[in-house]
Amino acid sequence: MIEVLSPSEIARARDTGALVAEILQAGKQLASVGTNLLEIDALARDLMTRAGAESCYVDYEPSFGEGPFGHYICTSVNDGVLHGKPFDYALRDGDLVTLDLAVSLRGVVADAAISFFVGTETPEGAALIDATERALAAGIAAAGPKARIGDISSAIGEVLRGSGYPVNLQFGGHGVGSTMHQDPHIANDGRAGRGYRLRPGLLLAIEPWAMLDTAELVTDADGWTLRSATGCLTAHSEHTVAITDAGAEILTLPR
């Protein structure tokens, strides 16, 4: 299903996006040496509840997961890159953390992710995060009315491949609206000029992610967390954008 939202729904989506950005930044501020991943999950729950929003994750039970996710935010650490299920783990100096959050507020969903270091950065990890952020910016710049999905994919892939990182095509961006995961799928590499043509009112979650030295994922014992097959560092950057007559409006920037 592909939803095209009305102007009033886009206005509500701006509020949802602002809430997602607020919770992600609060989680980042909380994350320090000794912070437990379950504390970050509890913070996300509390801020969501206070805003009258609903989690897109707690009851989420897709075919690729093992049972309902059961938590409010994805917390992936180091070699974990997607669908990181919070567990009893205290963050350590030098951990590379990804927080990924999808929230529904007044019937409209927004989805975003950030990657950052706790304490000491490593050059290779910082370069990886930077590449995903640059790929995200390139993908957003390629989005707009009359552009095609392949234009976004091509722009993302060019940055990631040009930075020397393998690209996995199993998981990527997607449409959002009244639900979290909708068509069209946005692969993180592809051919420009191909695929669904964008139009105003479309909401897209654009999400480049990369692993240092592999394109292969393995599933953790929790049945959810996806890790790099080699144990290498990973990073993930994501924004929800609204396609407008003028281009792509980022809804999940911190205010």
Automatic annotation (TrEMBL):
Catalytic activity: Release of N-terminal amino acids, preferentially methionine, from peptides and arylamides
Protein's UniProt keywords contain Protease: yes
Gene Ontology MF annotations: initiator methionyl aminopeptidase activity
InterPro entries in the record: Creatinase/aminopeptidase-like (IPR036005), Pept_M24 (IPR000994), Pept_M24_MAP (IPR001714), Pept_M24A_MAP1 (IPR002467)
Binding locations of a divalent metal cation 1: D100, D111, E238
Binding site for substrate: H83, H181
Limits of the Peptidase M24 domain: 13-245
Keywords: Aminopeptidase, Hydrolase, Metal-binding, Protease
Subunit structure, interactors included: Monomer.
Protein name per Swiss-Prot or TrEMBL: Methionine aminopeptidase
Lineage: Bacteria, Bacillati, Actinomycetota, Actinomycetes, Micrococcales
